[in-house]
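LAB NOTEBOOK - FOLDING QUEUE
OPERATOR: T.R.
BATCH SIZE: 2
PURPOSE: Compare the predicted structure-token outputs for two unrelated chains run back to back under identical settings.
PRIORITY: normal
REVIEWER: second-year student, initials M.K.

ITEM 1
FIELD SEQUENCE / FIELD STRUCTURE:
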Amino acid sequence: SEQTENSSGSARSLEGENEGPEEHLIKSICSYQAQTQQGRAFAGLSAVELTQFLQTCQEHASSIDWPLVSRLLSSQLSSPTWQSSLRALYVIEALLEDEDLKEFFEEEQLDISQIRFHT
């Protein structure tokens, strides 16, 4: 199982039962396997899914480990399934275009450009 270290220095699994909130959030929206298990076999994201995802990000922006989110999205971009990679691109685009999150990133002096192509 692949491990990643969050900003507090503790290691967390990218797969498995010990998922943190960031892993769960990204896996639930980007994972093509999760979508096919729910009976949906399309690569794109619905407007409802993106809206719910962005609302979650806005509500919890100050507690989200954004460098970890960047690494998780990067791993989705290199997913063996093109559908998961495409979904990750949709998520990245939505994060970069959301005005409320842009404002948060600027206030916190977070460089969100690393999320774009951190491969």
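ITEM 2
FIELD SEQUENCE / FIELD STRUCTURE:
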Amino acid sequence: LCTRLIQHLNTDYLVVTTTAGYLHIWKLENDGHLEEVLEKQIHQSGVNCVDSRIDGDVTLLVTGGDDCSLVLTGVTQVHTSQHPTVKAHVLCRIERAHSAQL
């Protein structure tokens, strides 16, 4: 389990990666409550590390997992008439990038 707190476009998000290979993003509300805005499987098994970088309107997440791959995921906010949502797209996956835990 890895976590990272990110502020992007005036919104606070908690990024959580799991031992099952999933990326979860939670929006931190002003009253302290969390609202899950994204769940996406990005690795075949556990995620061991996560780092982030803001690049314009995209948050880039790089993760390393037990499946020996590195994954670069782009996360964006999508504004709809009802409320903003979050989308994530795998931009790059490098298989067999490592042979030991990151």
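REVIEWER COMMENT (ITEM 2): The chain has no helices and eight strands.
FOLLOW-UP: none requested
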